[in-house]
Amino acid sequence: KPGTVGLPLPGGSFRIVDPATLETLQVGEDGLILFGGTQVMLGYLNDPEKTAAAIIELDGRRWYKTGDKGHLDEDGFLTIVDRYSRFAKVGGEMISLGAIETVIGKLLPEDAEILATAVPDGRKGEMVVLLFAGGIERDELKALIDQSALNPLMRPSRLIPVEAIPKLGSGKNDFNRAKRIALEAAA
Description:
Layout: E1 12-17, E2 31-37, H1 48-54, E3 55-58, E4 61-72, E5 78-83, E6 87-90, E7 93-96, H2 97-105, E8 112-121, E9 125-134, H3 138-147, E10 158-161, H4 175-186
Parallel strand pairs: 9-10
Antiparallel strand pairs: 1-2, 2-4, 3-4, 4-5, 6-7, 8-9
């Protein structure tokens, strides 16, 4: 189906669970995507801690925690909506960094680029930090954010100008480097 990842390969299956309780969610509800089947690895070599964090057993079946957030439709087609690693916990609320980028990104000039990340905050748990590059100045970006439909919890606490948004060799955003830049700026 258009807009979905599709169905699992033969021998595999998807399961959507609450990320905290691992309770199975209803059709259409967004949650942590688990993948089960013969394709699931036994674990990480010589790393039982990492294995325990990634592989679980539910109802007698091994499942891999993908780290993706998504839902299944009534026909079993999977839609991925975000990554759980791309969330910040601000004041006890889970905030999607991707959603922040989407809202702000629609307001930017074509030659500007942004990337949201989160860093620890002693008062609220984490704070949202926005890296920006290209044809926009801090004051102009701040004004766009202030005029946006973002609720106050989703508004970045800090804006950091960079020469270019960090990228991996594949051309995708480098989220780890972005976090390091934000942490260095906060120090």
